[in-house]
Queue: 2 jobs
Job 1
Amino acid sequence: MGKLLDGSALAKKIRIRVKTETEKYINEYNIQPHLAVILVGADPASETYVRFKEKACNQVGMKSSVIHKPADLSEESLIELIEELNNDDSVHGILLQLPIPKHINSERVINVINPRKDVDGFANENVAKLSKNQDALVPCTPLGITRLLDEYNIKTEGEHCVIIGRSQIVGKPMAQLMLQRNSTVTICHSKTKNIKGITKQADILVAAVGKAHMVDDSFIKDGAVVIDVGVSRVKGKIYGDVNFDRVLDKASYITPMPGGTGPMTIACLLENTLKCYLDLVGNKND
Ligand SMILES: NC(=O)c1ccc[n+]([C@@H]2O[C@H](COP(=O)([O-])OP(=O)(O)OC[C@H]3O[C@@H](n4cnc5c(N)ncnc54)[C@H](OP(=O)(O)O)[C@@H]3O)[C@@H](O)[C@H]2O)c1
């Protein structure tokens, strides 16, 4: 039977460490780390995620400001807001909660965020740095997955990592991080032929699709490490991409859902906020 990759437990450890460091730096610099979160519109899932992020910041002694704007906010007004936050020295991290309404060009506005305050690591400068193995702000979900792999001493070098999903948020940065760890990486997506034939070769399988219980035991080989990123709401219930009960016996390690990649994403957001703070405040004071 597979062992659990306990994201809740590791996230708690990270939160405790970030809290201690935050207290130390507030004493040293007399400035509180501050994350500004922009929420446009009233998507209930986004509102929930933003509440989680706000609570997590407050628990570790960081300030968080949620700036909630109506769904009909213009692209220019959003850009002006981001520029204000870029110019505000008391703000160290800026997070634009996605998805944003369709009339706004998300690529354009994401790239207005100062790359040094880009806690999500979605701006072009951070994407380019990650792809060149340079120090970057790395998207929180894939970063959290690598933290979990490290915590459980899971070998990545030479292993075949198959990622289902090629988004900018999860799939592509995950692939970059696994290449950095010397895995052999395959990315599958909606046009991939014979997907099971590929996923069955995976030593490490990351499912980041958003299709409830798409991955069952027929997708994996014995002893694979299985990471579930997907979150789907079906008739008010939340499902991962992985059918946990069907896969548990075959996997060597598996993330639970909930309690796997979700809490790790938030823990890594706190780490990234502290990283931005140290870059902006620490460097100025050293
Ligand atoms: N746990 C967390 O903290 C966390 C964080 C972020 C996201 N999520 C969840 O993770 C999931 C993925 O997020 P995302 O932002 O990456 O989503 P996304 O942008 O919608 O990307 C989904 C990817 O899955 C691929 N796909 C769709 N149907 C497929 C199929 N039948 N077979 C193979 N591939 C298929 C798509 O292929 P194409 O590119 O060909 O369309 C796309 O690359 C969502 O459920 C999201 O809610 C969870």
Job 2
Amino acid sequence: MGRVIALRCKECGKEQAVSPVAACPECWAALEAVYDLDEVARTFTREAIAQRPADLWRYRELLPVETKDVVGRGTGFTPLVPAPTLARRLGIRELWIKYDAACHPTLSFKDRLVAVALTKAREFGIGTVGCASTGNLANAVAAGAAAAGLRAVVLVPEDLESAKILGTAVYGATLVGVRGNYDRVNRLCAQLADRYGWGFVNVNLRAFYSEGSKTVGFEIAEQRGWRLPGHVVAPMAGGSLIGKVEKAFKQLEQLGLVEGRAVAIHGAQPAGCAPIAGAVKDGLTAPRPVKPDTIVRSLAIGDPADGASAIATIQRSGGRAENPTDPEVLDGIRLLAETEGLFAETAGGTVVAATRRLAEAGTFADGEPVVLLITGHGLKTVEHLADRPAFSTIIDGKLSDFEAFWERHGKAAVA
Ligand SMILES: Cc1ncc(COP(=O)(O)O)c(C=O)c1O
Ligand SMILES: [Zn+2]
């Protein structure tokens, strides 16, 4: 079923056999799955894909698994919806939202990666899986492991948003809170993968796991009638998603499923943790690690594993990067909700706020379609919206109370 022939080092190019390894044994750089595209092309056609169920496994030839017994049926194939009101507000001619806040089962794009990683874990005969997470991955691994009959050990910074913590524990996972930020959690997980031989999805299963992000790109192309957009704006934490969207478009082009065209891929990070966006703005080829200080916990990775390749993707594609402040992020969440009825978590607010800055700078002046990646649901990060009262008023439930309120409120609304 799979067409992966090797794992190739992203730095030195050395290839090795498909196995659960974290990095190149020569230079410790990250690994990339290599496909036999001639073999893929035999069965991967527009017509064949159209016949398949509406989930990420419709692109199975370009995912690094062999088995038909996959985890995560029903995951992916999220809505790609037009956003005309937001487009007008931002001065963009044609705007689309790829809404992974609706991803099955835990409302973020991480469900895609976990579907691939846990399928691979079962292929390797691994019984215990784990992850280091800024929150969304924790939800996805815990839920996926429960459904797949695997044991899950999940490690997160102990001060994450409560929906991310409770929404992991509910699935019965062993959830370890770590005092410290994500980068510390991640270092510990690398040690645990070595020590216990467990399958850490973003450590020793990373080369497989990360390929799940390509399905965002495949879907955008298919849902647009196999045409690529002119621009994509992606959130960045570890910097993997943005590069995988580029890889997806490139693979479709190599297979002749889409016409090749320049897609500018832009990256968004919050100002309080912008090692990749900052490097792009300064013309650097590698990120400078930072200590995160932002409400955007899902993107708070100070030392991004795929930072250099994210920078390369942005520069190669003619994209830009933006780093909006936390208040801009909250405005971005509210703007998307009020214009399009879509509720994004802080990562999505970061994308909308970055897009506003990019639009003001004339980035989309070519009039080509723009797709925003909204990767997680706003119900996961509601505490950050507590800066404004939710109620317009609180009354005793008498008609006269409401009338008195409406008299004032209606006038205020008109004024
Ligand atoms: C909601 C959300 N969007 C985007 C990202 C960034 O993905 P990457 O680490 O691949 O850059 C994350 C990572 O945790 C996330 O949780
Ligand atoms: Zn190497």
